[in-house]
Here is the input.
Amino acid sequence: MEENTFYVTTPIYYVNAKPHLGHAYTTLVADTLKKFKRQRGVDAFFLTGTDEHGINIERAAEAKGLPVSRHVDQVVDEFKAAFARLGIEYDRWIRTSDPHHEESVQKLWRILDERGYIYKGSYEGWFCAYCNEFKDVDEREAVTDDRGPMCPIHEQPLDRIAEESYFFKLSAFQQPLLDLYESRPGFVQPDVRRNEVISFVSGGLKDLSLSRVSVKWGIPVPDDPSHTIYVWFDAVTNYISALGWGNHRYQDFDKYWPAFHMVGKDILRFHAVYWPAFLIGAGIELPRMVFVHGMLLRGGQKMGKTLGNAIQLDVLHRYFTNDQIRYYLLREVAFGQDGEVTYQGLIDRSNSDLADGLGNLASRTLTMIRNYFRGAAPRPWGDQNADAADVTLQIIETKRRFDREFDALNFSRALEAAWAGIARVDKFISDKQPWNLAKDPSSRPELESVLATAYEALRHLVLLVAPALPVTSREIWSQMGLAGDPLRLDPNEARWGEPLDASPIDRISPAFPKLDKEKTMTEIENETAVEGAKQQESAAEQQAISVAPESAAPPTAQVITIDDFVKVELRAATVLEAEKVPKADKLLRLVIDLGEAQPRQILAGIAQHYSPEDVVGRKIIVVANLAPRKLRGLESNGMLLAASVGEDGRPVLATFSEDVPNGARLK
Ligand code: MSP
Here is the structure.
């Protein structure tokens, strides 16, 4: 690696379906990090791309009735268009079907083979085509239903495989990997993921099946083309093939490697165990870090195609700008943890932080400068009064904190710091009331000082937040009369009060639209009701599940969208204890096992029809995310489901006809 370079990668995306917000997430974060580094003068290189081989892609093409290569080209174009639409500026796009990539993969294979880490054997077992991973059914990695063993992540039947296969001697790497995690604690981050990996590797490593004879769409094994190379071996090699390792297409490996990998927690093992093992085996320098982020959730579940609950990018773009989307994801979801994303949350953040926060500070400051100083921004000079000096100090401290948090990938906290700076300047303006100072000519010096401080603070803050708001920071910058591109100016080189070559302020327009929440939500709900149904349909198709509609179902009073439904968390539970609540003839107090660390207490109005003995040990269905309520001084943490039957509304408990584990979610 040359000095002052930074190489950031995202996972490469499967081309079995069009991109959704979950895919955009890692890519947007990596793009923001690249912009941050480049703004600070670092030669940052950002790689993303597509993972195009494997049985799942073969099947997706088959379902569309297209030759595989046509199908992958189409989906790659969709990914590229989606990322361009989001304002993502990658430096290189790698496709695993690129000839130079194939060359590198075969080269890595040959090296490992020559070093004695690859041998031929035969494999018999279960495989998830969606994870592209062998599943150990005996070790309960898979759950079983009437279609046979299922993948617990994708809820799809596993494929049974029995064929000749080459193997990688992963078992030989247990100690080297443990030594790696020990000697470089920052190699896998955050710590919770590092610990997960250490515990997995400590449990022992089995050799890894590294080729398939039954999959045709893949890279042939060198000297044995009846086998194709295991897709994950093929895929992780992208991080070096894209720089020209093992091929002659590029010469960037020495300059940029080792990489800073950003991956979702769903693919931790491949990046933190297999990939370093391949590299150690081949004698190639290891990555700088594997940073593992959490999942974007909807209704408590991972957003994705298989579950049909993804936020679609075309819907988002109809209502929100790129900067609103980028800012929301960075600010709302603590990077490294799972985070629920909702349209409501996006509207709220956009209105409060962007329109009312930064946007309002910019327009009020610039409007006053235009009105009171004919657009010529006054500059801070000499001795400031105590309040202005305090604002100055706080903004300088904000800059330090922002960089510290950003470097530690705490994007949310970095932005929180910037917004505390915005709030400080806002308060300063409200306290000083420049509109009153402007009425009195003798207050002119103070008016000048207040607006000079506000303008200067705004200048530093806009530079700071530019990687997170690339479009609007440019817009505000130009409304401020400032030349150049804020994304190309290092905030740490901007000095407080330095002379500026600014042109007069004349064109002022709100940088962020204020959204009418109710109207926007109604429009989105109408649109996503159709979209959600389509997604559910295609997810159901994919899962080959068909649920026959109940005949004679009574008409429903109100139609709700899938968004409404996923808010309700229905789960299976077992009643552990039950007793009557004194002086309440309808209420039973139940202690239930919801599969959580601790049992929960709920109160149920069923005492006139069920005795405590009737319900203990029964499997019930509970609304698990209902806000706690107090009844007769007792807290109820959830609500059980029962049909209301007959004229007196007799409750009949909802249950299952088959065994279901506690905590299982109903969808
Ligand atoms: N092709 C493999 C990765 C190979 S990398 C050498 C793959 N592809 S994927 O398209 O299924 O997912 C790639 C990544 O997309 C995930 O790891 C994650 O970074 C991102 N996400 C997909 N859905 C997501 C969410 N719901 N939330 C956050 N990130 C998500 O796995």
